[in-house]
Amino acid sequence: MTEFIWKYNGSAPIKVRTFIMGHGITRTLLKKIKYHGGQTLVNGEPSLVNRLLDAGDVVKVVLPKEPENDHVSVSNVPIEIVYEDPNFLVVNKPAGVASVPSHNYSDDSLVNRVKGYYLRQHYANQKIHIVTRLDKDTSGLVIFAKHHFAHSVLDKQLKDRTIQKTYLAIVAGRISSPHFEIYLPIGRVEGSFVKRQVIDSGKLSVTEAWTVCRLAKQTLLRVRLHTGRTHQIRVHMREIGHPLIGDWLYNPDDHSLPRQALHCAELTFYDPFGDQEIHCQAPFPADMKSYISLNKR
Q1: Whole-angstrom Cα distance, residue 70 to residue 65?
Q2: Contact at 8 Å (CB) between 82 and 280?
Q3: I want to staple 229 with a disulfide (CB 3.0 to 4.6 A). Which of 12, 115, 120, 186 is the partner?
Q4: Is there a shared CATH topology between the 66-160 domain and the 165-264 domain?
Q5: In the CATH hierarchy, which fold is given to the domain comprising 66-160?
């Protein structure tokens, strides 16, 4: 089982519940610890969470065993690991692989592959917690949490928009500005489950971009999202007249690349367990690199 130990160094008495929630334990996780086989101990002895702590008390939280994703099949296709520790796993997803299983991709999504990896590693916790996702034809970094606690910590960071993700995108047309921002609301296209559009009734969406280099008739951009809407980069770039190269949905007449030229190249998040910032990078994919070589000025 996964466990965490903290020492209380405060001067005023404080309840165990308040203390451990200050370390990121949510009310939902507290209930799971209480009713599903976890433990809360103070100085090595089982304790109720309303107990008052004194300075120097040591609190241990033992997470309950999590049920496996029995409905998820196993894929033994290897994954490219960019970062791993006892709490987090960051994987470089190739283009053409769905992030999660679906009706069309039930056996070999990234989740299926990570499940196969966990089984081969004989990890005690086999539950798959995917934190960030990418479209099937977008390559790059995806974060997995290795237990419920780590997942809840990163969910809060997602809501607070403190997880930074930087993309590389090749768009149609030569953009003259070295830096620009897009503030346009995005909503669903009526009658479509997948497609999005810029629409007044949509949610505010903010995209920031920097020009990396200009090609013959295209531009390589470094892009950062300040909101996390579905297809945000793809929709925003199409709206300003510079759709992504190879984007079948928002640039259907372009077939120069068999997938949208979009890659999640960097991400940064805070690891509260190690009290450190984790920064990951994924190498520029070969297909986008080749496209740039073929389309230089």
Answers
A1: 14
A2: yes
A3: 186
A4: yes
A5: Pseudouridine synthase (3.30.2350)
Quickly name the fold that domain 165-264 has. Pseudouridine synthase (3.30.2350)
End-to-end CA distance of the chain: 57
Crossing angle for the helix pair 148-159 and 27-35, nearest 10 degrees? Answer: 170
Q: Which of 57, 107, 135, 200 is catalytic?
A: 135
Torsions phi, psi of 180, nearest 5? -155, 160
Q: What is the pLDDT of residues 68-81, one digit of tens each?
A: 888 899 999 999 99
Find tokens 């099937």 and name the residue.
136
- 275 noted as active-site residue: no
Residues 146 and 123: beta-carbon distance below 8 Å? yes
Tens-digit pLDDT profile for residues 11-26:
899 999 999 999 999 9
CA 188/CA 196 separation, integer angstroms: 4
Distance between CA 126 and CA 6 in Å, rounded? Answer: 25
d(CA 49, CA 157): 25
User: Which DSSP category does 195 fall into?
Assistant: -
Distance separating alpha carbons of residues 123 and 48, to the nearest angstrom: 29
Closest CA to 170 of 141, 227, 213, 133: 213
Sequence spans of domains, the chain:
3-62, 66-160, 165-264
Query: How confident is the model at residue 1, as a pLDDT?
Result: 72
